[in-house]
Specification:
The complex is a heterodimer of chains A (123) and B (107).
Chain A (H helix, E strand, L loop, with lengths): L2 E5 L3 E2 L5 E8 L8 E8 L6 E7 L4 E3 L7 E6 L4 E6 L8 E10 L5 E6 L3 E5 L2
Parallel strand pairs in A: 2-11
Antiparallel strand pairs in A: 1-3, 3-8, 4-5, 4-9, 5-6, 7-8, 9-10, 9-11
Chain B lengths: L3 E4 L2 E4 L5 E7 L7 E6 L6 E5 L3 E2 L7 E6 L2 E6 L9 E8 L2 E4 L3 E5 L1
Parallel strand pairs in B: 2-11
Antiparallel strand pairs in B: 1-3, 3-8, 4-5, 4-9, 5-6, 7-8, 9-10, 9-11
The chains are: A mainly beta (123), B mainly beta (107).
């Protein structure tokens, strides 16, 4: 059974760094074709993909946020960590981690999601 | 990033209605298009991938079609559990993009 769970602070102050941890089970991030992404959703808005780490430890970032994001993994702990620097109130939202799975077509889709972690940025 | 536009933004429907949601892009998406359902307070759930393939466990009343720049999600007979927000999603050039969403509400 695949599960993902996000953890981290519920509140951060402007200019602080946010660190979120995704702890997963039921799959290995060392398996070819498996990736984990971070996706956020501001209230009332569409989801916004932020970053991805794959089975080869390759990393990809949303272009507009690339300078603020770092994604990393600890395969022994089945964890993926996202850090976002210089937080601003516009970064308030629910942060999800999700598994990207490579389907038979060779394309990747988000097939399992965590329940999300609400992060509020306020002084 | 390839921008995608969903229509309508809000759709009012009744149980038993046939519902169609459209996702359009300004350039070809090939067949790399997915549809997700999201209920309030919950994470999105994958319904359709590769434009027309039903994800395992998703009811057969959901179907997807289209290619190139225009795609549709159809619910053949709307059920009470289907009132939710639906998003299309595409991958291009190491980036994943979601449409702005369609809220299917009770008429």
């Amino acid at each position: 059974q695949v599960t993902l769970r996000e953890s981290g602070p519920a509140f951060v102050k402007p200019t602080q760094t946010l660190t979120l941890t995704c702890t997963f089970s039921g799959f290995s991030l060392s398996t070819s074709g498996v990736c984990v992404s971070w996706i956020r959703q501001s209230p009332g808005k569409a989801p916004e993909w932020l970053a991805l780490i794959d089975w080869d430890d390759d990393k990809y970032y949303r272009t507009s946020l690339k300078t603020r994001l770092t994604i990393s993994r600890d395969t022994s702990k089945n964890q993926v960590v996202l850090t976002m620097t210089n937080m601003d109130p516009v970064d308030t939202g629910t942060y999800y981690c999700a598994r990207n799975h490579r389907y038979s077509s060779g394309r990747f889709y988000f097939d399992y999601w965590g329940q999300g972690a609400l992060v509020t940025v306020s002084s | 990033d390839i921008q995608m536009t969903q229509s309508p933004s809000t759709l009012s429907a009744s149980v038993g209605d046939r519902v169609t949601i459209t996702c359009r892009a300004w350039q070809s998406l090939g067949g790399w298009l997915a549809w997700y359902q999201q209920k309030p307070g919950k994470a999105p759930q994958l319904l359709i991938y590769d434009a027309s393939t039903l994800e395992s466990g998703v009811p057969s009343r959901f179907s997807g079609s289209g290619s190139g720049t225009e795609f549709t999600l159809t619910i053949s007979s709307l059920q009470p559990d289907d009132f939710a927000t639906y998003y299309c999603q595409h991958y291009n050039n190491s980036s994943w993009t979601f449409g702005q969403g369609t809220n299917v509400e009770v008429k």
